[in-house]
Design a protein that fits this description.
Elements: H1 2-11, H2 22-33, H3 36-52, H4 69-98, H5 101-106, H6 112-140, H7 147-159, H8 161-174, H9 177-194, H10 206-212, H11 216-229, H12 235-262
Helix pairs in contact: 2-6, 3-4, 3-6, 4-6, 4-7, 4-8, 4-9, 4-11, 6-7, 6-8, 7-11, 8-12, 11-12
């Protein structure tokens, strides 16, 4: 009997793309949107912070950049919102593992890697929604930027979320559920502060600026703001994004393989 079942399982055709599909991604997006905490921290808080703080800097120039304070703040908060959205989506695997959802999925034809790719896609969808919410808020409040700056700044803010999707997955697989959510919030706040999202790096002491160059937020935020500040995109900025992207993806991949063997 067991041999027959084994043969039948062996004969079962593998799903196309490992089961990855638009239907799966849309279902995961709808599940994520049911989480009110996610909606508040990705779609409400960044525009609210801009309304309360960033919009007040309209007309002020950021020292050493020549950029308008409101526009600078808008781009920074777009990076922050996309970062939180992507990280939250990745870290959700921790909660799903604790609830036994990962084991349930092992009983379906869905391949583990397809599940991970779907999570990354969900993170990027949420990140895009967060960036667009910031764009609409800035446009309604009269932030002045050239068309090229709007396009480049916010496209980079969105694509940079890939680094943090990997970060969220790494945390979700490494830490127990309760600890994951407790660690991620303060860690994102620290990375944002030292990466220059809440306070422009040009206004911080020299030592802090040097430390900031090695934080995960520095590369993405600096490249996103480069069209606005008319600054050069340096090798250091690109290297920062690549380095942290590889580190987070490597840690997430290793933790994922370990978890797959165990489950």
């Amino acid at each position: 009997m067991s041999l027959a079942l084994a043969d039948r399982a062996t004969e079962r055709p593998l799903p196309r793309l490992g089961g990855l599909s638009t239907t799966l991604v849309s279902l995961e997006v709808r599940r994520a949107l049911r989480n009110r905490r996610v909606l508040i921290f990705t779609l409400v808080m960044p525009p609210l912070l801009f309304l309360l703080i960033g919009a007040q800097q309209k007309g002020d120039q950021i020292k050493g950049t020549g950029a308008d304070g409101a526009a600078y703040s808008l781009v920074s908060l777009a990076v922050y919102g996309a970062m939180v959205a992507a990280t939250s989506s990745g870290a959700a695997v921790g909660a799903e593992r604790a609830q036994g959802w990962s084991r349930q999925l092992r009983l379906t034809p869905l391949r583990p890697w397809a599940y991970i790719v779907a999570k990354v896609c969900v993170g990027m969808v949420l990140a895009l929604a967060s960036v667009l919410a910031e764009v609409v808020t800035g446009a309604v409040l009269g932030v002045s930027m050239g068309a090229r700056q709007w396009l480049l700044c916010f496209t980079v803010a969105w694509l940079g979320a890939l680094v943090f999707a990997a970060f969220g997955l790494a945390v979700g697989y490494l830490l127990p559920t309760d600890n994951a959510m407790q660690v991620i919030g303060p860690l994102l706040a620290v990375m944002s502060t030292f990466g220059g999202l809440f306070v422009p790096l040009e206004l911080l002491p020299h030592t802090v600026r040097m430390v900031a160059h090695w934080t995960p937020v520095y590369g993405v935020s600096s490249i996103a703001r480069a069209p606005l500040t008319h600054g050069d995109v340096t090798i250091g900025m690109i290297g920062n994004v690549v380095l942290w992207g590889v580190v987070f993806a490597g840690v997430a991949s290793r933790a994922f393989r370990r978890d797959t063997r165990r489950v």
